[in-house]
Amino acid sequence: MVQVEQGLRYSRTHEWARIEGDVATVGVTDYAQSELGDITYLELPQPGTQVKQGEPMGVIESVKAASDIYSPVSGEVIEANQGVVDAPEKVNQSPYGEAWLVKIRLSDPSEVENLMDATAYEQFLAEEAAAR
Amino acid sequence: MTELKRTPLAERHQQLGARMIEFAGWYMPVQYKGIIVEHQTVRTIAGLFDLGHMGQVEVGGPDALEFLQYVSPNDVARLRPGEAQYSMLLYPNGGVVDDILIYNRPAGDGYFVVVNAANTEKDVAWLNEQRTQRSDLKVDVIDVSDRTGMLAIQGPQAEAILQRLTRADLSEVEYFHAIETDVAGVPAMVARTGYTGEDGFELYFPIEHAVALWDRLLEAGTPDGMLPIGLGARDTLRLEACLPLYGNELSAEITPLEAGLSWVVKFDKGDFIGREALLRQRSEGIPRKLVGFKMVERGGVPRSHCEVQVDGKTVGFVTSGTSSPTLRENIGLALVAREYAGVGRPLDIVIRGRPVRAEQVKTPFYKRAR
């Protein structure tokens, strides 16, 4: 079963954000990694980059497909996880843990309300599955 | 959405937890456990493939040989009973209708042609059209795809695993040869052929036995670590071995000479469809060449249709690309203007709008130790 972690906020494009103060740690969900399959390549925004909620900020590629990574929040990238860029398979192994992607300093904390909580995201996944 | 065609094994794939996709109008498994682990399992142990989507055509009658000589560029006369030959169907302009495998049946009772899933209807229509054109020939063309089951077992342990289910001595079946025998009590044509770059077999049998044969093969190979393999790994395996895929390396717009498959074209065997056009292309100079490359700069995975540049100028396009599980590098094949081809020479692959540096390398990317 696909894991959804409590306490995180989720986007409809399958990114998660852990909000701590005015910083969001961001990654892709377990559902996203399982849909993509073996991840082999990541492109992340460099620290200092301004990102906007809902807009592409990076690229994730598996053996079979390439996909954009959308920023779940707006703000400035303050850290990118070089460890996961060097070992992209970690996204498959630990999407909510070791394989976080970037940390973003929020420019508009109220935007977090646009994201789903774990219960809503589980519901969203169930609806997506039913629609297929 | 139109209803997808299903092989008899669709339910088995779901039970095995496969991720199912649409492929050429079929509902097929793209992966079970993961492309990389499946790929590595075929390279090191063995894998089992459902190939029920592939098409099969029987070509018989007193003039079957003459007909096949006319519609395909390889020399079918060299094919003795129990032998297989890689060939193609060509258009008069030298473009490719499909790439095919022709078996001269072990019993010598006609030819059996295996075609790509996406092209089955087109090929059968094409063959029937040629049959009408050549009313001087007595030949039967019968699409037997609906009643023919097809499985493959591929990998270094394939022979040992398959041997447990048949009395025939598989060590005596040479590469690109086939025998008729029983496998797990099912009458089958067993051929030492495949599409992975590994040793292995392809099995053809009455379709009603597909589930039973799959189950027995899986049961026989599981203790060795054999896995079922989806289309995802089938593609990475064939690409590492540089086996062409119709629609990528071959198409109506690409000739076999451009695709580096001139060995398939036997100009001296007599007339065949496409011969004149290919002779002309050969004498005028083949304008494009299929080359292998690996990415030497970070920038992503090359994919089919990516533009290829040299010094900012478009010189061709990527036909297939992937992240190679064996090499752990990003690799691909590209069709480029001939003057830019050459091992060691650079190419830029345009990935998401950015030229990313690649270097041409010798092909195939992977060759098994024999």
Automatic annotation (TrEMBL), chain A:
<comment type="similarity">
    <text>Belongs to the GcvH family.</text>
</comment>
<dbReference type="GO" id="GO:0005960">
    <property type="term" value="C:glycine cleavage complex"/>
</dbReference>
<dbReference type="InterPro" id="IPR033753">
    <property type="entry name" value="GCV_H/Fam206"/>
</dbReference>
<feature type="domain" description="Lipoyl-binding">
    <location>
        <begin position="23"/>
        <end position="105"/>
    </location>
</feature>
<dbReference type="GO" id="GO:0005829">
    <property type="term" value="C:cytosol"/>
</dbReference>
<feature type="modified residue" description="N6-lipoyllysine">
    <location>
        <position position="64"/>
    </location>
</feature>
<protein>
    <recommendedName>
        <fullName>Glycine cleavage system H protein</fullName>
    </recommendedName>
</protein>
<dbReference type="InterPro" id="IPR002930">
    <property type="entry name" value="GCV_H"/>
</dbReference>
<dbReference type="InterPro" id="IPR011053">
    <property type="entry name" value="Single_hybrid_motif"/>
</dbReference>
<keyword id="KW-0450">Lipoyl</keyword>
<dbReference type="InterPro" id="IPR000089">
    <property type="entry name" value="Biotin_lipoyl"/>
</dbReference>
<dbReference type="Pfam" id="PF01597">
    <property type="entry name" value="GCV_H"/>
</dbReference>
<dbReference type="GO" id="GO:0009249">
    <property type="term" value="P:protein lipoylation"/>
</dbReference>
<comment type="function">
    <text>The glycine cleavage system catalyzes the degradation of glycine. The H protein shuttles the methylamine group of glycine from the P protein to the T protein.</text>
</comment>
<dbReference type="InterPro" id="IPR017453">
    <property type="entry name" value="GCV_H_sub"/>
</dbReference>
<dbReference type="InterPro" id="IPR003016">
    <property type="entry name" value="2-oxoA_DH_lipoyl-BS"/>
</dbReference>
<dbReference type="GO" id="GO:0019464">
    <property type="term" value="P:glycine decarboxylation via glycine cleavage system"/>
</dbReference>
<comment type="subunit">
    <text>The glycine cleavage system is composed of four proteins: P, T, L and H.</text>
</comment>
TrEMBL record, chain B:
<protein>
    <recommendedName>
        <fullName>Aminomethyltransferase</fullName>
        <ecNumber>2.1.2.10</ecNumber>
    </recommendedName>
</protein>
<keyword id="KW-0808">Transferase</keyword>
<dbReference type="InterPro" id="IPR028896">
    <property type="entry name" value="GcvT/YgfZ/DmdA"/>
</dbReference>
<comment type="subunit">
    <text>The glycine cleavage system is composed of four proteins: P, T, L and H.</text>
</comment>
<feature type="binding site">
    <location>
        <position position="202"/>
    </location>
    <ligand>
        <name>substrate</name>
    </ligand>
</feature>
<dbReference type="Pfam" id="PF01571">
    <property type="entry name" value="GCV_T"/>
</dbReference>
<dbReference type="InterPro" id="IPR022903">
    <property type="entry name" value="GcvT_bac"/>
</dbReference>
<comment type="function">
    <text>The glycine cleavage system catalyzes the degradation of glycine.</text>
</comment>
<dbReference type="GO" id="GO:0005960">
    <property type="term" value="C:glycine cleavage complex"/>
</dbReference>
<dbReference type="InterPro" id="IPR027266">
    <property type="entry name" value="TrmE/GcvT-like"/>
</dbReference>
<dbReference type="GO" id="GO:0005829">
    <property type="term" value="C:cytosol"/>
</dbReference>
<dbReference type="GO" id="GO:0004047">
    <property type="term" value="F:aminomethyltransferase activity"/>
</dbReference>
<dbReference type="InterPro" id="IPR006223">
    <property type="entry name" value="GcvT"/>
</dbReference>
<keyword id="KW-0032">Aminotransferase</keyword>
<comment type="similarity">
    <text>Belongs to the GcvT family.</text>
</comment>
<dbReference type="Pfam" id="PF08669">
    <property type="entry name" value="GCV_T_C"/>
</dbReference>
<dbReference type="InterPro" id="IPR029043">
    <property type="entry name" value="GcvT/YgfZ_C"/>
</dbReference>
<dbReference type="InterPro" id="IPR013977">
    <property type="entry name" value="GcvT_C"/>
</dbReference>
<feature type="domain" description="GCVT N-terminal">
    <location>
        <begin position="10"/>
        <end position="269"/>
    </location>
</feature>
<dbReference type="InterPro" id="IPR006222">
    <property type="entry name" value="GCVT_N"/>
</dbReference>
<dbReference type="GO" id="GO:0008483">
    <property type="term" value="F:transaminase activity"/>
</dbReference>
<feature type="domain" description="Aminomethyltransferase C-terminal">
    <location>
        <begin position="288"/>
        <end position="367"/>
    </location>
</feature>
